[in-house]
Design goal:
Pfam families: MTS (PF05175). The chain has about 250 residues and is of the alpha/beta class. Helices cover about 25% and strands about 25% of the residues. Strands 3, 4, 5, 6, 7, 8, 9, 10 and 11 form a nine-stranded mixed β-sheet that branches. Strands 1-2 form a two-stranded antiparallel ribbon. Helix 2 links the parallel strand 3 and strand 4.
Length: about 250
């Protein structure tokens, strides 16, 4: 693909997503995507067609990656204007305007525009950390991405319940320390946890990420999938991580 540098604002760059000739606009001045977003895009249960929503979409990495797995219409919503603008320009850069729509706005208010129960699947990589004062050390973009400033965990899960269809899937990546809260809130809002997978930096270390998928109004039954190990004993990516990053695995993680 010929890169259209006219889409870049000052301080921005174009990064390679390493799969399907996809690229993304990023900047060191704002919060960039990391491995958790890539893993979620591969883990999420999504339909071959229909309508998918990515909450807290940031610069749009998850919608872009989901295009490699489905023909569904994909939307992303982001509250920060700069990140939403970067996401829109990344959609244009990849000529995905017919498949991806990026909304700028508050996810807590989206149901007022779309109505209830309209999406077949929802993905979300939400802010991980409750407010505790450490957010003041970050710039505003990083603070909103990492801390529950614009939305709490409960508000994210309530939004998922409002927007996903009965029988639709909600997939989230988060920190294992919050798993008790996540599962309790999901059940409170009729999202039944169905699949769990822990991500470990190395085989001998405790998990530092958890992937969880729930079904709205599903029956109680949760599967604990094999752990996903990131690095091997030689400090190299394990084969499954390489497959995920380079796109040779098109199905779920």
């Amino acid at each position: 693909m010929d890169m259209d540098n006219s889409l870049l604002e000052p301080s921005e760059r174009i990064d390679d997503l390493l799969t399907h000739d996809l690229h993304i606009i990023q900047s060191d001045e704002v919060f960039s995507f990391s491995m958790d977003a890539v893993l979620l895009a591969r883990f999420a249960g999504i339909p071959p067609r229909g309508r998918i929503l990515d909450l807290c979409t940031g610069n749009g990495v998850i919608p872009l990656l989901l295009t490699t797995r489905t023909k569904a219409d994909i939307e992303g919503i982001e509250i920060q204007p700069r990140l939403a603008g970067m996401a829109r320009r990344s959609v244009t850069l990849n000529q995905m305007q017919e498949r991806i729509i990026i909304r700028e706005g508050d996810l807590r208010e989206l149901y007022k525009e779309t109505g209830h129960g309209v999406y077949d699947a929802i993905t979300v990589n939400p802010p991980y950390m409750p407010l505790n004062g450490s957010d003041i050390k970050l710039n505003r973009h990083q603070a909103i991405a990492r801390h529950e400033i614009s939305c709490t965990l409960e508000e994210v899960i309530q939004t998922c319940f409002r927007l996903v269809k009965p029988g639709g899937k909600v997939s989230m990546v988060h920190k294992p320390q919050r798993l008790g809260d996540i599962m309790a809130l999901m059940r409170q809002y009729r999202l039944e946890p169905k699949r769990l997978r822990f991500v470990h930096p190395r085989a001998h270390l405790e998990a530092n990420m958890v992937l969880i998928e729930a079904i709205r109004d599903g029956k109680p039954e949760v599967r604990l999938l094999p752990p996903l190990i990131v690095y091997d004993e030689n400090n190299q990516y394990c084969p499954e991580i390489m497959d995920i990053y380079y796109g040779s695995k098109e199905g779920e993680v």
